[in-house]
Amino acid sequence: MTNTLARYDLTFFGIFISILYSCKKEELISEPEMEDTSLGTKFSVHIRPLLNTHCGECHSAGTSQTNYLDYDNAKNAITSILDRIQREEGASGFMPRNGNKLPQESIDLIQQWQDEGLIP
Ligand code: HEC
Predict the structure, then answer these.
(1) Which of 8, 51, 66, 91 is deepest in the core (most CB within 10 A)?
(2) Distance CA 46, CA 32 (A)
(3) Which of 51, 97, 104 to probe ligand 1 with, by most ligand atoms within 8 A of CB?
(4) Residue 97, ligand 1, Cβ within 6 A
(5) Coil, helix or strand at residue 93
(6) What is the pTM of this model?
(7) What would the pLDDT profile of 22-55 be if each residue is shown by its tens digit?
(8) What are the boundaries of each domain within the chain?
């Protein structure tokens, strides 16, 4: 009896882990702003994917602009990044250049990343 119960427990634990894992995989390909930030806003998990989507075309390795998919570059330019993405859409210096203003949640997420100490 105890053994059977223990086996059930293991089975459910296994299912639980699989569900958790599939959610995690799901999150990685979903909009970065939908990700769970309860353990902190991290560059690798939350910010880099967002920058890749909106800025990567011009600001990644091999482009002529600063590669903001690189943690140190993004960290060092955080004030400038926040300034540029909060300008009026189409205003001089507005980023993403020739693009649409980022959703407010994304801007807030980058702000939160700074407020929490620019976690890698
Ligand atoms: C279509 C190309 C393009 C996209 C997309 C783009 N940028 Fe830029 N960015 C540029 C160019 C060109 C410059 C240099 C001219 C200037 O300073 O405005 C620049 C300059 C900047 C600067 C000033 C410092 C530096 O690196 O030269 C920041 C900060 C910046 N971009 C952030 C961003 C962020 C954040 C995004 C995404 C939200 C983004 N950019 C998207 C083309 C782009």
Answers:
(1) 51
(2) 5
(3) 97
(4) yes
(5) coil
(6) 0.79
(7) 655 444 444 544 568 888 999 999 999 999 999 9
(8) 1-30, 35-115
